[in-house]
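Objective 1.3, modelling of assemblies. Example input:
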Amino acid sequence: MKCVVSSWPHIKDGVTSKEIMLAVVIALLPATAFGIWAFGLNALLIVITSICSAVATEFVAFKLMGKKFVMDGSAVVTGLLLALTLPPSLPLWTVVVGAVVAVGIGKCAFGGLGYNIFNPALVGRAFLALSWPVLMTSWVAPGTLTTSATPLTGASVSNTDLFLGNVAGSLGEISKLALLIGGLFLIAMKYIDWKVPLCYIGTVGLLSFALGYDPVFNMLVGGLFLGAFFMATDYTTTPITKNGKVIFAVGAGALVVAIRAFGGLPEGVAYSILIMNAFTPLIERVTRPRVYGTGKKVIGK
Amino acid sequence: MFWSQRFRGGVHPPHSKVTSDKKIEKASLPKIAVFPICQHVGAPCDPLVNVGDQVKAGQKIADSKAVVSAPIHSSISGKVVEISPRLTPACAEVSSIIIESDGKDEWVETSGLDLEKASKEDILAKIRECGITGMGGAAFPTHVKLNPPKDKKVEVLIINGVECEPFITEGHRLMLEEGEKILGGVRAAAKVLGVQRVVIAIEDNKPDAIENMKKLAGAEFEVVALKTKYPQGDERHLIKAILDREVPAGGLPFDVGTVVLNVETAKAIHDALSKGLPLVERVVTVTGDVKDPKNLLVRIGTPFTQLIEECGGPVGEIRKLVCGGPMMGVAQPGDASVVKGSTCVLVFNETRVKEDEEKPCIRCGRCADACPMSLLPVTLSKLVERRKFEMCSDYNIMSCDECGCCSYVCPSKIPLVDRIRQGKVAVRKLKK
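Predicted structure (tokens):
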């Protein structure tokens, strides 16, 4: 009898980190497919380039750090998310730069999965936006691929078109319906907390209304849905406490409206999340749940 | 009332209660029985017998003068062959009295109490003399539990028939087969504590037990069906679920006016008071990868391997031998013997024992959601790794009940509860 001695529990819930990453990729497929359908071959190449560069960067970075490279799917998620935030006409070399910065500086420089402070895909996107502002703001209309303004830069579209994705915009951000389907899937699988997208998008709506803007337009426009369902819910860079998640989402929502209303940029989702990422440790500290048997409620009735 | 019957967090592991329809069977007498002199929470006993002595079943073989302790009785008749340290199922090395059976099963004479006339002190003395301890796992001496300090007013007695651990069904079977005896013990305990309200708590995955106990209890006691969720059987969460009260950190249930007794303990109280039977046998669920899983009525001191043989032997090779359930049971390095707190012998073969490779934490927060104490397991685990034990204390590490929900849900397979236990040991040292 050769018995294995290990600490309890002796059974485990089957879910692994890899499965969660896979679920996120699956959840992003409707938006990705819609983007490729709308913008054609270059969109497909951007997605492939971004994912491959992200994985390759992680592989090289781990080799340089002397760590064992494990294909856990997180680099795939980062690569895919980055691709979805990019203009569909972007040259591929820019995509490579973005992915290398996202994974190399955004993630591996901090120690890899679980240690990064800022959302890696958004770090990559922010880097590209600062380095090549013209390329990063050149938009094409879906289908025709002719140069077009986006709703945020003056094009007038109906809210229905905004919701369904019949607008110019980033590769994976145009169809809110496709993003919603993926987001609801993650909520149904209990991989993300429904309160985060609700509070994030809800705050944007409420504050837009309060400031006299069209709330529906502001909720549907730009990268808000992608950010709310897939980036403000990122595990590593957002608080782990329940209340912390809500504070994060409300804060990010307020920042989006502030940037759109008072800032020099038409869109604010990426920066709102990056700024809130910096507050994550602080939010987590002040939202520690009250431990059973401590504090006010000890004696009860 | 129903909306409040819940506690925070918890997990839903597969029930795996394959033996819930199996009637309790008597296991055969052990040839050699092992009795650690400390099977309970509290002071160890001193042996009352020497090597070579003849003993009868039910004879007291070890006792202590300490208040928080419980005497040990031989479960078989035979000869004391050795007194030496052995590993208990809790993996502690404890001096143990080893008795070789003479196969006759001769008993000492015992007598019960007349409950109508007996005083509270008589009843407590009898319970102590019979060595009754909690039989749900921790084995806290029952006479101490039923005698709370004078300044603590106990209003509610909760009878714990929750059995939230997967696989275990011994409490379930007892509620079906020995319900009257359980209620007998409950009546005595209620009398000693002077409580008016008694709640018998059972999880709703045992509808037949709920029905049976409701029928037997009638209007005398409340029987409450609780929504199944692990670790509801932990008294802190059971109290929260039923009374919506929280036991203060470092406190005990009577700090919030309640006492929690396991169903099998109640039955043992009944046996002690009605017949003077000391605690020398208990029901153990023998399950997992054995050919014919059973609920066995087992003499204390019986080796686990004998019980596995009584169930037709293992299926495949025994790779893990657990005393208790799969969530909080202790993996044994080798064979051990049944003690008062052994609820279950769980066998896992090679198909179920997998080495999980630890992956980096992705901060998903599932451990924090699952923790019924509202701790942040991942934060504690990281603090322990960095040896920041004072901060562990600030983060209430000592409140951890070690239920294992955090390790159970972790997608990166980090042994969180293990780390936290190491941290608790270090914090305890720090405080000394």
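The first helix of chain A runs from residue 17 to 39.
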